[in-house]
Each structure stands twice: as structure tokens, then as C-alpha cells.
Amino acid sequence: MSKLKNEWFDWVKALLIAFALAFIVRMFFFAPIVVDGPSMQPTLHNHDQMIVNKFIYNVSEPERFDIIVFHATPEQDFIKRVIGLPGEHVAVKDDVLYIDGKPVKEPFLQEIKDQKKPNQTLTGDFKLEEIPGGYETIPEGYVLVLGDNRNNSADSRVLGLIPEDTIVGKTSFIYWPLDRFHMLDF
């Protein structure tokens, strides 16, 4: 009877340790997220399931073109692409992204640009000064984000700049559906 009791105790202890480790990993390192809506198409599709690296920005800063998850409201997280970094001026004119007045290629948009009709714009022209907040450069502690589906995205053009302390993490791995299973290139 004592041997059976010890075996049960070992199993309970192992399960408690496993749950504790899973909780720690989920809370502080990685978490699943489901893409909700078309704002990141064609890169991400509605209902893609991804893993968010919640730890990475504890050891590094967001970089241009990172795909991040952030708290848009207390109840809702958004997923968008980092376009502008602290100290930069951002503008889009005639579907060309300008950072500090220099054109920057956005290779993840090339497929969409190739398919658009003449006189159709992907991204309406805007300057940093025109988005909520009216900044001339992005202040420290903030980033400017845009969805890849520029004509159907609630991003910094609507929300304003995103405080870095609202960023949950970076995502670059789609694990479901299986036919979309892959790491993103940028």
C-alpha cells in the first residue's frame, strides 16, 4: 500500500511541476495567438494560429518590419508590422514608404503591388504629422505600425503611435493551419 501511495505522490508531483512549467512558459515566454481579420493579408490570413515570443523585447528592441502583437485596448490585442522606430520620420507617398526622407523597400508588399490596378493605391499618402499625436519624429518608447493590407487596417494611422510598453511580443511562426505552417521571412 505504501508503494502505491508513493507512486501516486510521484505522479501528482510530476503533474504539478509540469503545470507550473507550462504556466511559466505561457506567462513569460511564449503564447498562442489567432489572427482575427484581414488587416495583415497577404502575409497573415484570418484564423492563422501563431506563437508570440513574449521574451524577445526584454533583451532587444523592436526592429523595422517585425510583426508584433500589442494591447490596442484593455480587451483586445492587435497584430501589425513595425514600420517606424523612435527618432524617425515616416511618410508614404505614391505607395512608397519614406523613412527620414529616404525610400525604403517593403518586399512583403510586392505581391500586392504587382496585382493592383493602374491608379489603385495600396497605402493612402500620409505623413507622421497627420496621424493622431501630430509628432514630427517618433518619440522614444513608441513605434509606428501598419497592417500589410493597408486599405483595410486599423493601425497607427487611426490609433496613433504604439507605446512599446503595450507590446506583448514578436510573432514569426504560423503553426496552424498545417498548409500554412512556416516561419515568416521578415
Q: What labels would you give this structure?
A:
signal peptidase activity, four-stranded antiparallel β-sheet, Umud Fragment, subunit A, 186 residues, alpha+beta
Structure commentary:
The strands form two sheets. Strands 1, 2, 3, 4, 9, 10, 11 and 12 form an eight-stranded antiparallel beta sheet that branches. The protein is built from four helices and twelve strands; from the N terminus they run H-E-E-H-E-E-E-E-E-H-E-E-H-E-E-E. It has one domain (2-177): Ribbon (Umud Fragment, subunit A), CATH 2.10.109. It has helices spanning 2-28, 56-59, 110-115, 156-159, and strands at 30-34, 49-53, 67-71, 77-84, 90-93, 96-99, 102-104, 126-127, 142-146, 162-163, 167-176, 182-183. It is elongated and about 80 Å long. It has 186 residues and is of the alpha+beta class.
